[in-house]
From TrEMBL:
Pfam families listed in its UniProt record: Glyco_tranf_2_3
Xref: InterPro entries: Nucleotide-diphossugar_trans
Species, as recorded: Parashewanella spongiae
Biased composition (Polar residues): 421-432
Protein's recorded name: Glycosyltransferase
């Protein structure tokens, strides 16, 4: 076997091992949960006098949910003289008028609510939050995105955790307003359930670094300032601030029993747009903060955990590189050199790399007491959705690695609650205006689908039976993804 042939096969297995490590890390979350399943934050002391809280609602062009969030946020149960509400509005459309009318209405009822507007979107969400803090009066800042609806007692049930002076942030578990609206929202809910009910719980309980999720949480004002304030140099300002605060010595809490429901993206384009922002922002924070993490005096276990945490979005890119560039030559060379008995290495690596993720998602339903049978039935759909995100999130990861800057693209919300419910009080004609733009690269996705189809047929003709299930799932996933992208662009051009 030539040196080049050995190199190609070696790189293929090297990339498979990396993917396997990501899968094992996911699996470790399941194992660690058994150790920390009974963990609950200490019962907090009670403030002798409740502190002042500023509630910030950042939004941009959200006319379909603007009235709903304003009408919901004024229902928060907290002493009126201790509560300030800021609607942090960067909108350039009719959203501002809707907000202005509702804010004026509630101000006349004596509620301390302000409409904080900017003339530009400098710094996007991070910039808006930073500027709004100039007029914030609260010792603590509660943040809720426009599509989240906190229960009235949310603040009262969580604020006393800040009697511990070193707590910078308290994060609530996300629930989902439109969980059962469609198969897409059901699958998204399973993915987020695993992140919150399993991953965030384990990281908090084991005293690892974890992150604020951008909404449904409360920050200590002095911690935000001490950590360097909100920064717009990444697309995930929440993750960035979380790491800076913890590296500065602050602690954070995750409350698994306190939930706040929000709206899941209603269509694939909106979902891909959201995932692109999260994936790219995560890699940007990795490039920015991971060297600092490893230079810090944190224990090695925390450094390793943080590395997996910040680098996990690169798994899509690694999988795409391996299957597109090295898989076919590897199979061909092994066929030429009668080296097929190495399947006993392939199969365990493939099972661990993909099985670890599936176990993590499945177990996320178990820890929250949800139906495990329903979760098991949806595992194929979860695999398909992951494949459909591969190109989208790989592109995001590459842009993050090479420092390509893009604007903060909001995820459109429709105001839907559940299947068959009224989306909002606004006209349905607004939905066309707020429709998510399909991500670029439809022709590339079609080309990838064609390549995988050819690879699958080649594997059949060369009797690589052990690889067929894996190749079939990949091929089907990319074909579906390409079809969806093509159809989305067709719809947009009509």
């Amino acid at each position: 076997m030539s040196l080049l042939s050995s190199f190609i096969i070696a790189v293929h297995f090297f990339l498979l091992v990396i993917l396997c490590l990501f899968g094992l890390h996911r699996l470790s979350m399941v194992v660690r949960w058994f150790k920390y399943r009974t963990f609950k934050p200490e019962t907090p002391k009670v403030f002798k006098e409740l502190p002042k809280i500023t509630v910030q609602i950042p939004l941009y062009n959200e006319v379909l949910v603007a009235q709903r969030i304003v009408d919901s946020i004024v229902l928060l149960e907290y002493p009126k003289d201790k509560l300030q509400i800021q609607i942090v509005d960067d909108s350039t459309d009719d959203t501002s008028r809707v907000i202005a009318e509702r804010v004026d209405f509630f101000q006349q009822q004596g509620i301390n609510i302000q409409h904080v507007q900017r003339t530009n979107r400098h710094g996007f969400k991070a910039g808006a939050l930073k500027e709004a803090m100039d007029s914030a009066t609260g010792e603590f800042i509660a943040i809720f995105d426009a599509d989240f609806i906190p229960t009235p007692n949310t603040l009262l049930k969580s604020i006393n955790h800040f009697t511990q002076p070193d707590i910078a942030m308290v994060q609530f578990r996300w629930e989902h307003l439109n969980r059962r609206s469609s198969l897409l929202t059901k699958i998204q809910a399973i993915m987020l359930d695993a992140h919150f009910g399993l991953e965030q719980h384990v990281r908090c309980a084991s005293n690892m670094l974890f992150n604020f999720n951008g909404t449904a949480g409360i920050w200590r004002t002095t911690a935000i300032i001490d950590a360097g304030h909100w920064s717009a140099d990444t697309l995930t300002e929440d993750l960035d601030l979380s790491y800076r605060a913890q590296l500065a010595g602050w602690k954070m809490l995750y409350l698994n029993d306190l939930t706040c429901p929000g709206e899941l993206p209603a269509d694939m384009n909106a979902f891909k747009s959201q995932q692109f922002r999260w994936a790219k922002g995560g890699v940007e924070v990795m490039m920015k903060m991971l060297p600092t993490v490893w230079k810090s005096k944190l224990p090695v276990t925390k450094k390793i955990e943080s590395s997996f945490h910040l680098a996990n979005n690169l798994a899509y890119f690694i999988m795409l590189i391996d299957t597109l560039i090295f898989l076919v030559p590897s199979l061909y060379l092994r066929d030429q050199y009668d080296f097929l008995n190495i399947w006993w290495v392939d199969i365990p690596l493939l099972l661990l790399s993909s099985g670890g993720h599936l176990a993590y998602l499945y177990f996320g339903q178990h820890v929250l007491g949800r139906s495990r049978s329903r979760a098991f039935i949806k595992l194929p759909s979860l695999m398909m959705l992951g494949i459909q995100l591969a190109i989208n999130n790989s592109k995001a990861g590459v842009e993050g690695l090479f420092g390509k800057k893009t604007e903060f693209v909001r995820t459109p919300k429709t105001g839907e609650l559940e299947q068959g419910s009224e989306p909002s009080r606004n006209s349905n004609s607004n939905k066309q205006t707020y429709r998510a733009i399909p991500p670029k690269g439809a022709l590339f996705e079609i080309a990838i689908a064609v390549i995988y189809s050819i690879v699958f047929l080649w594997a059949v003709t060369h009797q690589h039976w052990f690889m067929l299930p894996f190749l079939f799932i990949l091929t089907l996933g990319f074909v579906v993804s390409a079809f969806h992208s093509f159809y989305s662009h067709y719809q947009l051009s009509k």
